[in-house]
Model the fold of this input.
Amino acid sequence: MANGPMGRRANGEHPERADADITKQAAEFTGRYVVLLDQEAPERGMNALRTSAGVSSVEHVHGTEVDGVAELLENPDVSVFFDELGVAVVEVPPDQRHALVTTAEAEESIVAAEPERVVYASVITEAQHTLTGFYPTYRSDEAEVDRHTIAGAAGVLGPAWDEHQMTWGLQATRANWSLMTGRDVKIAVLDTGVDTDHQDLINCIEEAASFVPGQSVEDGNGHGTHCIGTAASPAENGRYGVAIESRVLAGKVLNNRGRGSDGQILAGMAWAVAQGAKVISMSLGGPVEPGELFPQTYENVAKRALQHGVVIVAAAGNESRRPGFVAPVGRPANCPSILSVGALGKDLATASFSCGGINGAGGQVDIAAPGVEIWSAAPDDTYQTLDGTSMATPHVAGVLALLAEAHPGASATDLKARLLSMAHPLPQPARDVGAGLLQAP
Done:
């Protein structure tokens, strides 16, 4: 796929992009804590932390408030409480951290208290391409398309996918055959921002906000723009977007090097819920150890989001080196209430990097989607091809938008169940692909 649909040359100079093939060896912490509170009595829990652990003054932030939130999160004299989610990012003196933990264990109104971690964009490889005539020939007969969705065809497809008119990911998921377009359904993509001037995306961006200190929502990395393109681009000359009439909420929660914090992610989630998102797509995360439990804060936030009618989708992670090594699904995708997405290659085999459900107790892969050689939008009005569970995740977010349009009265829990029930079985173990290959309605 060396060429592109619009005849514009890709600019490969993005000096702030993260390294393309980083293996994250250990979790990183910020020194702050993320505290989940009983939504019926949040002040009781915060007062207990003020009294016992010297917690700094608390600023309440509503999801509709954007200006200054990033700076608040970086202010060592302020703890930030997100009203929609009932969760706070807490600053506490180092010598009081033990007191915070013991207070959280003793106080019933504090559901969980966990060290805040650094999160990363979940990307594996990057290949820039010139754009002068992209796709080869597209097989348009329906019988051929039906073959693409049968697990038995996996061994014969491989490079035979023709992408003259649309990407292989749309064909494999049958998004190209769906009568749904995701019309007016809001998809929040929390990532490295977006190229707000990209001609393929400019008409699908509903709102954009940055939760990264000192950086605008403009995407200096490329990861976020790529994910948004896959989920929702309405481009017709070489289609690569799933829900082409959906509305995108672009939340910048990772900086231009693809790094962020739990607090920035939670700020973006609160904003997305307040803006009326039906789906939150997060192609980001952090590594976990074998046997590590899922984070209670993200799990409970995901449950609260479901109650607000929002489904959260997250990348399973790229730390595996198959066939010799399978890494556990990373956080927050390892939460039971978050849809965890694994990646497939063009042969419909599990991608070598895709993490697996080896930790149990919520650490499973729920569904698999195309995540290798995925063509989508890039900054500076260009395109690029990327690999990763990051690329699989927005396919799922887009299909959820199609389902939300098809079933406007369905609850978030029902949408998740419908999505999983529609998946085509694959010969790989559920550990690697969950319910199977993602399929559009």
Summary: Residues 389-406 form the longest helix (18 residues). The chain is about 25% helix and 20% strand.
